[in-house]
Amino acid sequence: MFDPYFDSVAAFIAMGEHGFFVWSAYGLSALLIVTNMLVAVRRQGRVRAEIARQARREGAGGSPKAGTSPNSVESNQ
Amino acid sequence: MWKTLKRWYHQLGSPRYFYRFCEAVLPWLIPVSLALLTLGLIWGLVYAPVERYQGDSYRIIYIHVPASSGALMGYIAMGVAGLVALVWRMKMAEVMLKALAPFGAALAAVSLLTGALWGKPTWGTYWQWDARMTSMLILLFLYLGIMALQSAIRDPRQAARAAALLAVVGVINVVIVKYSVEWLNTLHQGATLKVVGESSIDASMKWPLLISMIGLWLLYAANVLMRARTEVLSRERRSGWVRRLVRDEEA
């Protein structure tokens, strides 16, 4: 069980004549999944930067009253 | 037991607590999911034996089944989040509803693409309008429809209500996907793994499949937490704790 099933790298890539199907299936899957993860990471960075910019702008104009906004912090609803 | 559940509901229902929960969980959830996925896929692609009738094309199973099951479970989770959002108007349920959709849509697309690439050498066709494949295509459209609703309606709370309704109604389609291979005569084969009873797969193939499945599910969970965390920050940007958080990170 813990020996590789394939005799050679060439046999592994060929996948018993099904190489095209197996590798395009895995290639497309990797592309979709990796892209999705990267989009999530980038969106997070963008939102954080946006909030920081906004805070700096308002910090320069006058002191923001922290914790007194109408969007309450702890409520569920 | 009931009390613990109730406390969780209220704590995780609080955006601030949820944010802290994400910060604690993500640093190990991402590496663990990637490690399991890598282990399962290498095991399945390199070490598992070949399938007698399908040859090596069967190795597509190690991504096809995890992606399909992930897409289905993600949709059920969206249905639950949608119900909670509709009935109790819980903010975090709306956030989860939004966070669950994109990766679920990607997994539904992966399921369809890998299924087509597996079908060609095995059945002689990339696509057939049978019950399993058609209902899976509908699942992808439901995911895309929910994402479209969420981005088309400007008010986030109104968008969430529309999306929640579609999510709840669409759960029927998950039942059709699940049982289509048992009730109807389809080209698609029956379930390989069964929770109850004997699986129709040898242990040498079952273990790598289970490991890559759990790995991909955990990666989905990590993706959802990342997206939900971002959504919480964006929605709560006016509140004190988000301002303090950003200020502390700047300093």
Question: How would you sum up this structure, described in words?
Answer:
The complex is a heterodimer of chains A (77) and B (251). With 77 residues, chain A is mainly α. Chain A has a domain of 51 residues. Chain A is built from two helices and no strands. The radius of gyration of chain B is 20 Å and the shape is globular. The longest helix of chain B is centred in the N-terminal third of the chain and has 33 residues. Chain B has one domain. In chain B, α3 runs antiparallel to α4, α3 runs parallel beside α7 and α4 packs antiparallel against α7. Chain B is mainly alpha-helical. At the A-B interface, α2 of A face α2, α3, α4, α7 and α8 of B.
β content of chain A, as a range? under 5%
Major pleated sheet of chain A: none
Strand content of chain B: under 5%
Rounded mean pLDDT score of chain A = 81
Count every helix of chain B, treating DSSP H or I runs of 4 or more residues as helices: 8
Provide the low-confidence segments of chain B as ranges.
Answer: none
The geometry of chain B reads as globular
Oligomer: heterodimer
User: What pair of chains forms the biggest interface?
Assistant: A-B, 49 and 60 residues
Helix and strand pattern of chain B: HHHHHHHH
Which class best fits the helix and strand makeup of chain B? mainly alpha
Terminus-to-terminus distance of chain B? 42 Å
Overall 3D form of chain A: rod-shaped
The termini of chain A sit apart by: 54 Å
